[in-house]
Amino acid sequence: MTDFADAIDQVQHGHDLPAEQTSDLIDLMLQGNADEKQVSDLLLALRDKGEAVSELVGAARAMRRHMTRIPHGHGTLLDTCGTGGSHSGTFNISTAIAIVAAAAGVPVAKHGNRKATSLTGSADVLEELGVPIESEPDAVAQRLNEQGICFCFAVKLHPAMRHVVGIRRKLGVKTLFNLLGPLCNPAGATHQLLGTSSCDAQTKIADAISQLGTVRSFVVHGRDGQDEVSLDGYTDAIDVTTGGQSQQRWVPEDFGLAPTTMESLSAANPAQSAQIIREIFDGHSSPRADTVLAGTAAALLLVGEVDSLRDGVSKARETIQSGAAKAKLQELVAS
């Protein structure tokens, strides 16, 4: 049996845990066979050392074994779930991007949860928008197959996380589990637009995805610290495919959009975030709308719907101005 005390000691002395050992430890946590102090000490030790790629891969494999899977018939499936933890205080950009991308014809399984280290989680804003988030797995699968979009609520589809959710809240800091969410989509997303809150996390997540496998993913980090495609300065993107990795750097001019400051994207709570998304879907131009256009453009480029970021912006803008994004949100609300 995996020894927590030994693992904690290894990590506190700066040693990375192998994937298999980490997987066994996470299994014990998710089975409820580890006490609170053990879990807390290990998570904090990993955080202090810096989570290694082997630890991310092992933990993700364990999480995937315990999650409730969502079956579907889509050959291409996008997720825009990021790591969070940037403390940027922005509205729920990736959630808006998911809806616009789905309205543009890309099947989407948006993975997410309630807020942990942010002001608003994707579940919080969708609930505020009127979208049912507590659906049973069969209903989630039906929504994905019939509407081309669903929300994979982590609380419902990762039931074993109940054994650690209280500990995470008490710790109140970003831990290994914040990095695992995007690596454990219950519908098995083939493509991911995955935002990270630091350059270090970006590199590690990209390396983990290379081992865990997707068809193609963009792992992004904004110069301003956003875990999103940013129009404030530049966005670094690691393009992860089955053939390897390549680096890209996007600036506002690549999208044909004006620079935008992070301060202009703020939202104090889920209600304000929801109102911002409604205004964007009503066709109001703003720096917030431009940020959603940029992120959606990256998503469309990722799945091969467009050949350039500028073409992606044009398609995203048309999707919003035609009312298709608003209609897709209304479909979700009515489902």
Automatic annotation (TrEMBL):
Cofactor note (record): Binds 2 magnesium ions per monomer.
Cofactor list: Mg(2+)
Pfam family, one: Glycos_trans_3N
Binding-site positions, anthranilate 2: 168
Catalysed conversion reaction: N-(5-phospho-beta-D-ribosyl)anthranilate + diphosphate = 5-phospho-alpha-D-ribose 1-diphosphate + anthranilate
Record carries keyword Transit peptide: no
The protein's annotated pathway: Amino-acid biosynthesis; L-tryptophan biosynthesis; L-tryptophan from chorismate: step 2/5
Binding site for anthranilate 1: 82, 113
One of the GO biological process terms: L-tryptophan biosynthetic process
GO molecular function: anthranilate phosphoribosyltransferase activity; magnesium ion binding
InterPro entries xrefs: Anthranilate_Pribosyl_Tfrase, Glycosyl_Trfase_fam3, Glycosyl_Trfase_fam3_N_dom, Glycosyl_Trfase_fam3_N_dom_sf, Nuc_phospho_transferase
The keyword Magnesium belongs to this UniProt entry's keyword annotation: yes
Residue stretches making up the Glycosyl transferase family domain: 76-325
Residues annotated as binding Mg(2+) 1: 94, 228
Top EC class, one word: transferase
EC number(s) given by UniProt: 2.4.2.18
Protein residues bound to Mg(2+) 2: 227-228
Family membership: Belongs to the anthranilate phosphoribosyltransferase family.
Quaternary assembly: Homodimer.
Alphabetized NCBIfam families for the sequence: trpD
Protein name (record): Anthranilate phosphoribosyltransferase
Originating organism: Stieleria varia
Gene name in the database record: trpD2
